[in-house]
Design brief:
Blueprint (H helix, E strand, L loop, with lengths): L5 E4 L5 H12 L3 E6 L7 H9 L4 E5 L5 H15 L5 E4 L14 H24 L6 E6 L12 H20 L4 E8 L10 H10 L8 H12 L8 E4 L19
Parallel strand pairs: 1-2, 1-4, 2-3, 4-5, 5-6, 6-7
Length: 254
């Protein structure tokens, strides 16, 4: 049986979460792959975990169900027969078409998935038996530093998770370290054109967008930084250093 540390990465069967899971496997972690319904990772992720000599299992959990979210940590620990050493709260709700002021229902839906569920998972990790110090890394968004008028419910829920990072770092110490990574535009959807992405990169202070490997490396660093808690690393090409009038999808369209 493996004695590697165990990492639970929410939303990790594809996209950014999969890149984070792959980097953690290569850093020596066994991986609990999470999906809201499907638990089958993309083939390249399975290959990278196998190449790293690590193990993985898949877990389905709808994070809108807070009772199920809170129970997920115990499910993972029981399946691997050891506690979760690292939780990466990557899964989130995002409504790219949200405009104007949000409804109360939209606020509640975003806060449930993007704030309450990650907090419940973090507290469940801290409550696990054993003397080992656990670690939580929350995935935020660079927009929390200088918000714009688009996707307000999403932005507010990520700002709440950013403050929860600082608060839980105090409340869960010394049992658990809590940090965060705030990415910029990293994996563009089909709403962006290649030409637009080139122009957006040129708008960043560093002249580049963040890449999945950049975010994954920051997560690995925080997971293995024993004297670090309550911190947020912005990995965004410098985007948080200046203001943008709208969400990136609306900018630099030519």
């Amino acid at each position: 049986m493996s004695v590697a540390p165990l990492a639970l990465v929410t939303g990790s069967r594809r996209r950014l979460g999969a890149h984070i899971a792959a980097a953690l496997a290569e850093a020596g972690y066994d991986i609990a792959v999470h999906g809201s319904r499907s638990v089958e990772p993309e083939a390249w992720l399975v290959d990278r975990i196998a190449a790293a000599g690590r193990e993985w299992q898949g877990f389905a959990c709808d994070l809108d169900d807070l009772d199920a979210a809170e129970a997920l940590v115990d499910r993972v620990a029981q399946a691997f027969a050891r506690p979760v050493a690292l939780l990466v709260n990557n899964a989130s709700r995002f409504d790219g078409g949200e405009s104007g002021l949000p409804s109360a229902a939209a606020l509640v839906a975003h806060f449930r998935t993007n704030s309450a569920a990650p907090m419940a998972l973090a507290m469940a990790v801290a409550r696990q038996p054993g003397d080992e110090v656990r670690s939580v890394v929350n995935i935020l968004d660079q927009r929390i530093a200088r918000p714009h008028r688009d996707q307000i419910a999403y932005t507010l829920s990520k700002q709440a998770l950013a403050e929860a990072t600082r608060t839980l770092a105090v409340a869960l110490a010394p049992r658990c370290r809590v940090n965060a990574v705030a990415p910029g535009l990293t994996i563009a959807t089909d709403d962006y054109t290649p030409e637009q992405l080139v122009r957006l990169a040129a708008m960043m202070p560093l002249g580049r967008l963040s890449q999945p490997a950049d975010i994954a490396a920051a997560v690995v660093h925080l997971a293995q930084a024993p004297a670090c808690t309550g911190q947020t690393l912005y990995v965004d090409g410098g985007a948080a250093q200046q203001s943008y009038a709208r969400d990136f999808v609306h900018l630099a369209r030519g």
